[in-house]
Amino acid sequence: MNRRRVLRGMLNGGAVTVALPLLDCFLNGNGNAMADGTSMPIRFGTWYWGQGISKNVFVPKQAGVNYELPEEIESLKDIKQHINVLTNLNAYRDTAFFCHYTGWVVARTGIAPETGALPMAESIDTTVANQMGRTTRFKTLSTTATGDVRDIISYESPTTPNPPDFSPISLYARLFGPDFQDPNAPTFTPSPTVMVRKSALSGVMDKIKGLEGKVGAADKTRLDQYFTGLRHLENQFDQQLTKPEPRPACVMPAAMKDMDTGSDYALVAQRHALMSGLLAMAVACDQTRVFNMVYSYGFSNTTKPGYDKPHHTCTHEEPKDEKLGYQPNASWFVRRAMESWANYVKAFASIKEGDGTVLDNCLILGNSDVSEARVHSIEEMAAFTAGKMGGKIKTGLHIPCGGAKITNLGFTALKALGLDMKTWGAKSNETDKTISELLA
């Protein structure tokens, strides 16, 4: 038996070939690695929601494993064993403060922004992708359920955003269109288009050193950034011209139909669910090992039926209910976000991989832009992790962080992923501390 095992026969005088599924015999005896000893791939992802939390009904009162889910996050009950809830994390502005921006930029880059337009460093998904995303078809994938391509939380560099896919049907075409190579197919035919692109790019790459020797320092820096991207493209082409390793969890999804645009919460949730499933299967098929999802942005315009204000406006104009201790409609929007977070985690947890699931080999970070949106607070922020990252991360915990830097979470992820970094971040947000409770 081998991974290319097929059934051959005759039908109406013609030869037919039917591929066998990837069987347990292609894995090791424990189902936690490939038969040749190669480890299951580790993946890193992020999830983002705008407008923060209602602390009174979001933050659990108990720490550790045996905590009760408050009403704003009670929809997480089915994924509680897969996630960690982290609370009381702080970001520091260092310079000017930019509403609905400073908080998430610090969490994602480690550095407070100096303007409200551009971060000061690459985002954490890029840092990870530069180490572990070079051998897959896509170095990283970014998506948004908002329907707006401007809702960006991934940056290749301070001046180079990674625009997200915002349509489920376009994401499907990108992932599973003509250039998709099924890793479990019995045969492999390299794409002629990719071969031509590879050939053309190789010709360009031959000219790099000569050109770099003829320009000034500033232009050399620009060229280096540009050619780094071209080198990654060449790596991608190499991947697409090589028969992929089989992936037991990879099943090509059925073709998708497009859906209505709009910001009604039900449409946002539907887009989010469709793209979550596509992302999870892209990961299972090893098309990428780094991925991002935006549920809602800092200036969220998600709407509620029968309510005349979108989420962002609601957080500023709705009075706090003195009896409840929070803004009821603002909390309603957060609860819908938490439902989608639960569905996001379930999408990865539902795909069997070896003796576990795709989620078991992932680490996903979830964060927002603020704590209380009404006052744009970046103190006492909340965050999530999901997945065990191949056994390196504990799950099922509420971890009160006692006012620690939110960059501690990103640094913990980077260290757990094996990146050789002594610190992460800058100025007040720089850290060399991990959240030890997360580490197995």
Structure write-up:
It is a single chain. The chain is an alpha/beta fold and 440 residues long. It has two domains: 30-181 and 249-438, Alkaline Phosphatase, subunit A (3-Layer(aba) Sandwich), CATH 3.40.720; 189-242. It is built from eleven helices and 13 strands. A seven-stranded mixed β-sheet has the order 5-8-3-11-12-4-13, sandwiched between helices. The protein has a two-stranded antiparallel sheet with strand order 1-2. Strands 6-7 form a two-stranded antiparallel ribbon. β6 (155-157) and β7 form a beta hairpin.
Please outline the helices and strands:
Elements: E1 6-11, E2 14-19, E3 43-48, H1 55-58, E4 83-90, H2 102-109, H3 124-132, E5 141-144, E6 155-157, E7 160-161, H4 168-176, H5 192-205, H6 208-212, H7 217-240, H8 265-284, E8 290-294, H9 311-317, H10 328-349, E9 352-353, E10 356-357, E11 362-367, E12 381-386, E13 397-405, H11 407-416
Parallel strand pairs: 3-8, 3-11, 4-13, 5-8
Antiparallel strand pairs: 1-2, 4-12, 6-7, 9-10, 11-12
Helix pairs in contact: 4-8, 5-7, 8-10
